[in-house]
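Exercise 7b. Backbone tokens:
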């Protein structure tokens, strides 16, 4: 009888996040090198699919959490979502005014930063429920 290795739900989320980052880096390199449109589109769609996989892994993880950990996640998201919106809004206003902030040329370059407010929110919520 073989026993299956039991993995934590968070390990799938981390693996999906790593895959997303790897595919996105490849996408940026392909675009920056000016590769053929078909290749850019294919790798771009792979990045979108990887992001979808990350969302599925995240939802599965959330469904397996107990009530306290779900509450921590909800509070982290309650902090992160409006903060990320504020960040994107601020950078959009500055971009519209003709000011380039932190080397971001367009708002499409900002999406990795919206994860930062979630991590901060998660740290705050986790500390609160200790």
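Sequence design result:
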């Amino acid at each position: 009888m073989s026993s299956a290795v039991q993995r934590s739900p968070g390990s799938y989320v981390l693996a999906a996040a790593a895959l997303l980052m790897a595919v996105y880096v490849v996408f940026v390199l392909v675009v920056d090198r000016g590769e053929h449109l078909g290749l850019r589109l294919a790798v771009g769609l792979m990045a979108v699919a990887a992001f979808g996989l990350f969302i599925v892994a995240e939802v599965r993880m959330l469904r397996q959490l107990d009530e306290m950990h779900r509450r921590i996640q909800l509070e982290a998201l309650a902090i992160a979502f409006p903060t990320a919106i504020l960040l994107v809004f601020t950078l959009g206003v500055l971009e519209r005014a003709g000011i380039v902030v932190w080397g971001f040329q367009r708002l499409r370059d900002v999406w990795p930063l919206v994860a930062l407010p979630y991590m901060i929110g998660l740290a705050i919520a986790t500390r609160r429920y200790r």
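Instructor comment: The helical segments are 9-32, 37-64, 67-96, 115-128. The mean pLDDT is 85.
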